[in-house]
Amino acid sequence: MRHSTRCSLKFYTNLRISRATGHRWGITVNLGFKISSQSHQDHECFKARQMTTFSGMGLTANEALSEDGLSDSDPRPEQHLPLSGLGPGVMLETSEGPQPVEWLRPGDLLLTRDHGYQPLLWTGRSAMSDTGVEPPLRIHAGAFGKHTPDHDLILSPGHHLLLRSPQVDLHFGCEEALAPALDIANEAETDFDIPSPDYAYCHLLMAEHEVVLAEGVWIETLFPDEATLSRMADRARAEIISKLGPALAKSQSARVMLHPGEAVVLQPRYAIAARRMAA
Question: What residues does each domain of the chain span?
Fold first, then answer.
């Protein structure tokens, strides 16, 4: 920002970590036009010098930004995001046709958006009694359009769905992004289920973070970052670390993962990436 030109426009800033390999710095004029978008490594720190107004984040002109755009006293948004997971009965596209998530085992092949059919590395469950596990969100069949999803899609509020629309590129500088289900709840026909005491979320881990097809909607597999692992039971955490080995430290998200609240500007109901959309 050292060579920026002072002007009278107001800017909305978006500096956020991708939960993987760095962060993206974007500036959008208050009319909605993006005028700058740059990616930076996660060790870099910036000092904004000549921007008059930072209305999106409430920053003053000389305030230094940390790598995630938050001050030391601010909690990371991920800390408030529930553990991702799928409810029993959700159907996923496999090499053998649609299969319920609770039937899947390591070695089963799931259809991924980027790499064709890929094997599951690990499957696990998190009981409602576990720390940090929230009641499931039920996205009703057809909530995003005809047969989207095909049947009720039951997810943790923190599970990410794939969004694809011109607005994603306008606001975040990428064609597709992953947004938590909770951000989409107010845009579609959804309910929070009241599960039985023995209810458990299902988790699907692959060698890489992938986008897979569930009930006709593209969603994420488990992303084993620090925030996710901290919410897992001790045994599950140990199994994931053992399965991934050194590759765990190099884990990258399949897409930019939006923070809670960021998807609001996208009208996410109309941006859901579904089976009917070209891959």
Answer: 7-37, 91-250
Which residues make Cβ contacts (< 8 Å) with residue 246, sequence separation at least 6?
A: none
pLDDT of residue 30: 38
State the Cα torsion 153-18-165-209 to the nearest 10°.
-50
* Of the candidate ranges 24-38, 105-119, 175-189, 248-262, the one whose mean pLDDT is the lowest: 24-38
In terms of DSSP bridges, do strands 176-180 and 23-29 run parallel, antiparallel, or are they unpaired? unpaired
CA distance to 55, 138, 202, 254, per residue, from 59 (Å): 7, 38, 40, 30
Q: Which of 258, 254, 38 is nearest to 168 (CA)?
A: 258
- Residue 136 pLDDT greater than 80, yes or no: yes
pLDDT above 70 for 60: no
In the chain, the DSSP E strands lie at: 11-17, 23-29, 34-40, 46-47, 64-65, 91-94, 97-100, 109-112, 116-127, 137-139, 153-155, 160-164, 176-180, 190-192, 200-206, 211-214, 217-220, 256-257
**Residues 159, 219 contacting (CB under 8 angstroms):** yes
Phi-psi region of 106 (alpha: psi -120 to 50; beta: other; left: phi over 0): beta
Q: Which residues of 23-58 are buried (b: 16+ CB within 10 A; e: fewer)?
A: bbbbbbeeeeebeebeeeeeeeebebeebebbebbe
Task: At 30, list the tokens.
Answer: 């208050």
